[in-house]
Amino acid sequence: MPHDQVPGRVRLVGAGPGPADLLTVRALRAIEGAQALLYDALVSPEVLALAPSACVKIQTGKRAGRASMKQETINRLMLRLARRGLEVVRLKGGDPSIFGRVGEETQFLHAHGIETEVVPGVTAAAAAAAQFGFPLTHRGEARRLLITTATTRDGSMLQSGWAAAADPETTLAIYMGRDQLPAVLDRLMANGRSPGTSAMAVENAGSPDARAVPGTLADLADNLAAAQVSGPVVVIVGDVTARAAVRAAPCRQTVAR
Ligand SMILES: C[S@@+](CC[C@H](N)C(=O)[O-])C[C@H]1O[C@@H](n2cnc3c(N)ncnc32)[C@H](O)[C@@H]1O
């Protein structure tokens, strides 16, 4: 970096679940002021379109099994752009602190003397609950919300924490669990959660084409397979999901049965 150049800053911004009106005002301002924007696969075109036309836009993640940029490459890219003095926005679907690698990225940037700011976003579970009309906690019924992934870094199933997840007063929000769902639900039942517990898988939560697939621990995996979803899916386990009410406007969301 030349001596007279002030290093820029990196803002790690939550893009929410897709629709631009689910961005926070702070996220919107950050995107509108971005000079370089690195975005994940789950960021919607509607949100991306809010960035200035002169802003450098770099996609870092690809869906449908295609390769994503390596984390080390993303880190180096953010660093290089910030050292040029640019306002860099690292845009992530949902909330950046929930399975968004915000810890790794801020640690790397701080180690290289770059200032960061994290701007929160609406996470998939919150978007799903709001859209399909159920709460994530409910007085006297669901006293805890446990956000978990089903898989570890190497793709194998998570081994720990199943007893807490099986507690009937816990609402469980499972991210990145679509492919492991049959095994996850079996594990919950093996740990004592009732097979009749209500559950719901939500595809594309927050967006107008969101789809909810309801069921119980015993049949949700089959229901989801039959629904043939292709978008991102969050699975909510807990009797709060039995309170779901599908509302009409403004979203044309559907419940697959
Ligand atoms: C790497 S995690 C990112 C989570 C994100 N940071 C958030 O707060 O929503 C990706 C997983 O989040 C879930 N997810 C993200 N966006 C979603 C959406 N709009 N609808 C349903 N699930 C979603 C899916 O389980 C997906 O596999």
Short description:
The protein is α/β, with parallel strands linked by helices and 257 residues long. The protein contains eight helices and eleven strands.
Q: Detail the poorly predicted runs.
A: 247-252
CATH class of the largest domain: Alpha Beta
| Span of the ends, CA to CA | 58 Å
What fraction of residues sit in β-strands?
Answer: 15-25%
Task: Find the structural class using helix and strand composition.
Answer: alpha/beta
CATH fold naming of the largest domain:
Methyltransferase, Cobalt-precorrin-4 Transmethylase, Domain 2
Helicity level, as a percent range? 25-40%
Number of helices: 8
The kinds of small molecule bound in this structure are:
S-adenosylmethionine
Compressed to H and E, one letter per element, the order equals EHEHEHEHEHEHEHEEHEE
CATH homologous superfamily grouping of the largest domain: Tetrapyrrole methylase, C-terminal domain
Can you give the mean pLDDT? Answer: 91
Main sheet overview? 6 strands, mixed
Tally of extended strands?
Answer: 11
Q: How much is the radius of gyration in Å?
A: 20 Å
CATH architecture of the largest domain: 2-Layer Sandwich
Number of domains: 2
Overall geometry: elongated
Strand order of the largest sheet: 6-7-10-8-9-11
Overview of the structural elements:
The protein is 26% helix and 22% strand. The chain has a six-stranded mixed beta sheet with strand order 6-7-10-8-9-11, sandwiched between helices. It has a five-stranded parallel beta sheet with strand order 3-2-4-1-5, sandwiched between helices. The model is unreliable at 247-252 (pLDDT under 50). It has eight helices and eleven strands. 42% of the residues are buried. The termini are far apart. It is of the alpha/beta class. The chain has helices spanning 25-32, 45-48, 71-83, 102-111, 124-132, 162-166, 181-190, 220-227; strands spanning 9-14, 36-39, 56-59, 87-92, 115-119, 144-149, 170-175, 198-203, 211-216, 233-237, 254-255. It folds into two domains: 9-119, 3-Layer(aba) Sandwich (Cobalt-precorrin-4 Transmethylase, domain 1); 124-255, Methyltransferase, Cobalt-precorrin-4 Transmethylase, Domain 2 (2-Layer Sandwich), CATH 3.30.950. Bound molecules: S-adenosylmethionine (SAM). Residues 17-18, 42, 92-95, 98-100, 123-124, 175-176, 202, 204-206, 232-234 line the site of S-adenosylmethionine.
